[in-house]
Write a structure and sequence with these properties.
This protein is 34% helix and 17% strand. A seven-stranded mixed β-sheet has the order 3-2-1-4-5-7-6, sandwiched between helices. The two termini are 32 Å apart.
């Protein structure tokens, strides 16, 4: 598969960064409902896994959605993103977090060598080309303060989920389709000296099904007929240094 360089997709006023939140997280949308569940997961992971709350980094922070939710739990918070367009939105959302424009996969000194107690990386790895995934994970592993620090990264497209329907369509139409498996996520972390200590799945039924399923039916299925987490659409991995 030929990958577009993911660094370019959210850069510039006419990039995908434009109206990002309005496109994805409008009230009542599928992604807004998933985000409500993600917030509960974030709260739980910080509470159970991060004893020291001095420093927090949101890698590829985008419009600051995750950063704004997590920053009140830490003494100091930083958001890093390559897109000035995204960061302009984040500035109106965060409280006191420092926002840094830069590409840590090409300039590892963009944060002046600082280390962090907790790092999040949401909605990045799925669409990044394989080499960029490795470059990013190498940086994230190096930015953890010590063995008590934690990285939480997610993949918003599990290959072995109900997204298989989209994969089948993409094969027919020739569209680019990105997916990652649980095993690939474990391997990515392990290649860079990280151990996955816990992982979670959210969302059994992909939003593509909303084209044929009424939303109340989707909500009922999510609540009463969830699939095992290995088949969840959205995957979340809590990592520490080995």
């Amino acid at each position: 598969m030929q990958y577009q360089d993911y660094r370019t997709t959210h850069v510039g006023p006419e990039s995908w960064a434009k109206d990002y939140d309005a496109k994805l997280f409008a009230p009542g949308s599928f992604d807004a409902e998933i985000w409500a569940r993600e917030q509960r997961l974030l709260d739980d992971i910080v509470e159970r896994h991060v004893p020291r709350r001095d420093s927090y980094l949101d890698f590829a922070c985008g419009t600051g959605r995750v950063l704004a939710h997590v920053e009140p739990k830490f003494r100091a918070a930083t958001g890093l993103d390559i897109s000035e367009t995204m960061l302009a939105v984040a500035r109106g959302r965060v409280r006191s977090a420092e926002l840094v424009a830069g590409d840590a996969t090409r300039n590892t000194d963009v944060l002046a060598g600082r280390k962090f107690d907790f790092i999040t990386a949401f909605r990045f790895f799925l669409n990044a080309q394989p080499s960029l995934r490795d470059d990013a994970m190498a940086f994230l592993a190096s930015a953890l303060e010590d063995g008590d620090s934690r990285l939480l990264f997610n993949v918003h497209g599990n290959r072995y989920s109900t997204r298989l329907l989209l994969a089948a369509k993409a094969r027919i139409t020739g569209e680019q389709f990105s997916s990652m498996s649980v095993a690939e996520c474990f391997e990515l972390a392990e290649r860079h000296g990280l151990e996955v200590v816990e992982w979670h799945g959210i969302g059994s039924y992909d939003k593509s099904l909303l084209r044929v399923l009424p939303r109340p039916v989707w909500r009922w299925a999510e609540r009463h007929a969830p699939l095992p987490k290995r088949f969840a659409v959205y995957l979340y991995f809590v990592c520490r240094r080995r």
